[in-house]
Amino acid sequence: MDPVRNPYAPGAGQRPPELAGRDREVRQFEVVLERVAAARPERSLVLSGLRGVGKTVLLNALRSLALSRAWGTGKVEARPDRSIRLPIAQALHAASRELTPRHRDPERAEEFLGVLKAFALETSVKDRKGVRWRPPYDVPALRGRADSGDLELDLTELFTAAGELARDLGVGVAVFIDEMQDIQPDELAALCGACHEISQRGVAFVVVGAGLPHLPTALSASKSYAERLFRYISVDRLERDAADRALTVPAMSEDVEFEPDALAALHEVTDGYPYFVQAFGKATWDVAPTSPICAEDVKVAAPEAEAELAVGFFGSRYERATPAEREYMRAMAELGARLADRPVPTADVAALLGRKPQSLSPARDGLIKKGLVYAAERGSVAFTVPHFGAFLRSQHG
């Protein structure tokens, strides 16, 4: 069939043509928006899950929903080697551009920008390096507001100022933080503390974070009350009917159908993971000669889809690892074959490699920092990428 008309979109954070299986999460956020706008108490949200389940796609969809309600929004992608102060300032500057033109009191809008500038100017020289953005220079920094140098206090004052500006318009402000697990532990604690304070004050401000499966644990470790501070949403693979809808709805828009056996075959090879659904859907479309798409088309397309995943989805991550880290991952994959790729005990990894567990800590910690594995529970590790163990076994079996 015509590849130009191919509706599927495998890509990092790229929204699929049909956002299937996420209706519940969208409805939950709609309630949050309405409650905050009505000055009712509500918790911020945290999305967690493996890579390839569509966390970033869902995060962007929730931001679009907030924008449709005339909220001020901004987005941050956390990095382990960078403070969040300047990215948060940039995100709230973006939110201010959505709010200040509608505000009837220019002095109130200028006051917020002054607080924002004071907050941003506290950014260290190291964290400014390589960043071209500068806080708004057309307003003076409001000294004494959000510039103490204590990140928790400064975030609280900044979030409060932003929420007050939005409240004047009957809306709120939402900051969306992707890769939230990469925020430095002390700054994650500061962010939790600020969210706790503004929730008690009823400020019209929410944080929506997304990260790997261990993000809830990291938040709880940073502040003991974090387990009650956020509404936690686990983003997982799609149920069969949602996975089918992700394939059939875009195809129907192009007057193309799937035979039931083709849908069954696609679900078997994708396991319902949204990224795989898009990758195999795209490859199957390209090889299918005509509608309806049949199981044989899926069989023919599978090697091409698998080859693309091996390079772009799996291989690129494997190449980031050091030799010692690769050895650790191969041991995890071998053990995973016996455990249906469930989390594996770190002691078993050490035993398989004939090493003491302490000697493998640098490799394990390096893999965690690179986002390739996570501490699933005490004394065990798991891959952050679905089917990664199977990929390693196929490459190094």
TrEMBL record:
This is Orc1-like AAA ATPase domain-containing protein. Gene3D superfamilies: P-loop containing nucleotide triphosphate hydrolases. InterPro entries: AAA_16, P-loop_NTPase. Residues 18-206 form the Orc1-like AAA ATPase domain. Residues 1-23 are annotated as: Disordered.
